């Protein structure tokens, strides 16, 4: 993907507070996505489905662009607070659903 300037589309954030759900298989990530879209809380789905060991409902806390892989950063920094990625994001670790809980 083409490199974007610092901050991407939304200016000003140097860090985002994110939760994620990590699945090895895309089908599992899509299953998690449909559960959330059906009204299940993100943190509950994260605890049940995510292969990450972040047991606090997928909470990763505050992350800068340099602390996460590029495709994850591009997706996370493009989100508004309270917004989730509409599709799983592919990284070397698997497929992530990312929820933005804060920007600073």
TrEMBL record:
PANTHER family: PTHR45995. This is Peptidyl-prolyl cis-trans isomerase. GO terms for biological process: rRNA processing. GO terms for molecular function: DNA binding; peptidyl-prolyl cis-trans isomerase activity. InterPro entries: PIN4 (IPR043323), PPIase_dom_sf (IPR046357), PPIase_PpiC (IPR000297). Keywords: Isomerase, Rotamase. It catalyses: [protein]-peptidylproline (omega=180) = [protein]-peptidylproline (omega=0). It is an enzyme of class 5 (isomerase). Residues 13-102 form the PpiC domain. Its EC number is 5.2.1.8. It comes from the Eukaryota. It holds the Pfam family Rotamase.
């Amino acid at each position: 993907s083409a490199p974007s300037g610092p901050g991407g589309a939304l200016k000003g954030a140097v860090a985002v507070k994110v939760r994620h759900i990590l699945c090895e298989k895309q089908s599992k990530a899509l299953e998690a996505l449909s559960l959330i879209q059906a009204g299940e809380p993100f943190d509950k789905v994260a605890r049940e489905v995510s292969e990450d060991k972040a047991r606090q409902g997928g909470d990763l806390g505050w992350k800068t662009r340099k602390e996460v892989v590029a495709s994850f950063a591009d997706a996370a920094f493009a989100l508004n607070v309270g917004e989730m990625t509409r599709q799983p994001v592919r990284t070397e670790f698997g497929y992530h659903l990312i929820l933005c809980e804060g920007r600073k």
